[in-house]
What we know:
heterodimer; A: mainly alpha; Arc Repressor Mutant, subunit A; B: alpha+beta; 12 strands; 48% helix
Amino acid sequence: MQITDRLLIRRFNAGDRHALRRIYEKYKPDLLSVARALLKDSTAAEDVLHDVFVTFASQAGRFTLKGSLKGYLAICMANRARNVNRRAGRADPERLARGRPEPSQHPDCSEAAGDAEQRRIMISALDQLSEEQRCVIALHVLSSLSFREIARQTRQSINTIQSRYRYGLKKLRSLLDGQVER
Amino acid sequence: MNQAEKIKRLMREAFRQASDEAVTSALDDRTLNEASVAMRRAVAVHQPVGRLAIWRTIMKNRRTRLATGAAIAAAVVLSVAVMDWLAPPAWAIGQTVKALKSVRSVVIRGIGYDDGAAAPFTFWIRPSGDGGEGLDMRLECEFQTMVVRGKKAWMYLPDKNVVMIYDDVTTSYGMMRDLQWWYDVAALNPWITGKVLAAAKHVAEDWEEVYGPDERTGRDCVFVKCAYGAQSSFWFVCDLETKLIVEAKYWNWSSPDPEGPPACHATSFAYNEDLDDSLFEFQMPEGVRIIDKGKIRKIEQEARVLSDRAERLFMERKYAASIEAYQQVYDRFPDLTDGVPASTALCMMGAAYRMLGEPAKVVEVLQRQLTEYGHLEGCESQYYSLGRAYLDLGDKEKALKAFEDCLAIGAGRHGPDEFPLKHAREYIERIKME
C-alpha cells in the first residue's frame, strides 16, 4: 500500500473527514470511469460511486487493508456495478451469449464525432464481452490495476485474470475491427 | 501504436472524459455528506477506544467538559422523544413531544461536575432569532461564556483571555466537536421533528420508568432512566400534567455509574421565558486575544492544496520537488492541528528521501517528526522507517532500538501480524541473527 494511503487510512479510521475527502477526491475519477464502463447509465454509475463510498465510510474505525486502497475501492465498484447489472438483467446469459453483433449493429467509429458517441461505441463493444472479461479490462485499463492486484482482490489466480484480459481484448479488437485503425 | 493500445486509449478517452463531465458538485456533496455521517457513526460504534480518547481530550478540560455537559443536558429535551415507541399507555411520551413542539425557549440551570467539584451553569436556548435553521444558545459559567447564534459561535475563556470565533459550528472541530454532534440533530429543526425521532430510535436502550410525586414540588411525575450505549445514561423527570421535563441528569464515561454522581445535573428547566435578543449577542471583552477559527479553516485549506501538490509530485516520482513542497507545508503550517499536515509532511519527506537513497536525510526528518509530533498516534510507523534508515546507514544498534520502539509503541494498536509490527519483528530477528 502506498505510504500516503496508509496515512490517510489511519486518519480515516480516527474519523477524520478531511482524510475521507482526500480518499474520495483522489480515487473518484478512476472509480467513476470503471463504473461508467461497466454500466450503461451514467446516473447508475454515480449511484454506485456514492454507495461504495458510504459503505467504505461505514467501516471507519476498523478498516484494515493488505492490498492497495485503489484496488480495494475499484473492486468494490466493479462488484456493485455487477449487482446493478444483474438486477437490471444486463447480465442475462442469453444476451451475453449473443457474441459478435451483426454487421449492421457494429459500432461505427465514423459516427464517433463526439465523446458521447465514442463512449456509446465502447459500451456497445464492451457489452458483448462476458461480465468477467469486461470487469478485468475496465479495472486494468481504466483503474490501472495490475493483474496481480486484480487477482489478489478477486481471489482468482493471476493466470485466470490474464486470460480474461487477453481474450476480452481479442474480442474487443474483433468487435471494433477496422474502427480503431484510424 | 498497435491495435490493443489504441483500444485502451479509446477506452480511457471515452470513459474519463465522460467522467469529468458527469462529476458534479452535487454528487460530491451528496456522497461526502452521507459518507461523513456514516464514518462518524462507524467510528463511534467500532472504535470505542478512539471515541473515549476524544471524550477524554474534551473532558480533561474543565470548561469544555462543562460546555459538553450543558449541551447534553439540553439534548435531553430533544432526545426524550427517542423513547416514544416504548412508552406505556400510562404516560405516552408523545405527549411530551407534543408539548415540546409548542416551546419557544428553554432556560436550563444546573451544575456540571469536574472530579467532584461543582460548577453552576445557565444555558439559554431558543430557535434561531434570525429565522434560519438551528438554535440560538448562550452558556454561562465561571470558566466560560459561549454564545451560538445560528451557525456562528463565540467562546470566551476568561482565564486565558481568549475569544474563539467559529464561523460554522456545524463544520467546526476540536472543542466544538460535541456541540456540533448535538447541533446536527437540533439543526434538523428546532425542538422535535420526526427526523430526530427516527434517528434517535436506533440508539436508546435500557428504558425504565417509575411514577410518583416529585419530592421538590409534590407534583405527579414520571422518572425515566435510559442509556445510549455503555458510556452515556440519562435520568429525567417529566411532569405528568404539563408533559414537560423538569429535571435531568447525565452520566458519561467519567462517571458511568448511574447510581453514582452525574457528570451534569440540570436542576431546572424553565420554558417559554421571553428571552431578550441581547442575550444572544456576544459582547467582545476588551483586550482579549481573538482566535478566528474561520480564518484557520482557510489556512487549513491552503495547507491541503499544498499537501496535495506535494503528494502528486511524490506519486509522479518527482521526489526532490515533492520534498520541496512538503518542506513548505512543514514551514508554513506547523501549528495546524486538524490532520497535522506538518507531521504528515515530515513523514512524506522521509519517504521521499528514502526513494532518493539518502538515509541520513531520512533519519534527520524522521527524528524531527518524532521530536515534534511523537505524541501523535501512529508514530510507530515512523520508528519502523527510522529503523530501516539506520540499517541503510549500517548502524544496526540504532536500527534495533528503533524497531524495538516500534514494537513497544505499536503494541495494542496493531495486530502482531500487521504492519509495522510484523516487519519490525522480522528485522529485529534478522539483526540479532547476524
